[in-house]
Amino acid sequence: MNKTLARLCQWHQAGETLAAWLNPLVLLLLRLYLFRVFFLSGLTKLRDWDTTLLLFSEEYHVPLLPPELAAVMGTFGELVMPVLLLLGIFGRFAAASLFMINLMAFVSYRHVLLLPNAHAAALDHLEWGLLILVLVAQGSGRWSLWRSKVAAAV
């Protein structure tokens, strides 16, 4: 019995060591993936601003904001917050901001996303939201500029 318990403790410790090593890598990969998703979306909006304004006026129904302001805020958020997230500067703030952008995109476009043939697009928003929440909870991890600046200051 003691040998079995000792063996289980060894395996548990090995798993903890592996998890501690993988954690910053996984957080970096999440940051890279979410950077790509949101930054490319922001670039698309910026490249064709007339279409972006048309979509925000006619298709997206952002509550409480005029379409022009919603377009500027959404595009700004999709271009700036992913960069902060990728670099790991104010990572939780950037992740929380992207979560709100993702939520607002879903709410504003729900009349399309909830159609039966748009199931995959709705699942994309759910996936992004869940991945962002991991970063809100965990932060940017050890492999971030913020962490390296804080470590250098201490």
How many runs of DSSP E, i.e. beta strands?
0
Count of DSSP H/I helices: 7
Overall average pLDDT: 92
> Considering DSSP H and I runs of 4 or more, what fraction of the residues is helical?
over 70%
The profile of the biggest β sheet is: none
End-to-end Cα distance: 46 Å
What structural class results from the helix and strand content? mainly alpha
CA radius of gyration is: 20 Å
Order of helices and strands: HHHHHHH
Q: Approximately how much beta-strand content do the residues carry?
A: under 5%
Shape: elongated
| Quaternary | single chain
Unreliable segments of 5+ consecutive residues: none
How would you explain this protein's 3D organization?
With 154 residues, the chain is an all-alpha fold. It is built from seven helices and no strands. The chain has helices at 2-47, 49-58, 67-87, 91-108, 110-113, 119-138, 145-153. α3 runs antiparallel to α4 (91-108). The radius of gyration is 20 Å and the shape is elongated. 20% of the residues are buried. The model has no long low-confidence stretch (mean pLDDT 92).
Q: How would you summarize what this structure contains?
A:
The chain has 154 residues and is an all-alpha fold. It has helices spanning 2-47, 49-58, 67-87, 91-108, 110-113, 119-138, 145-153.
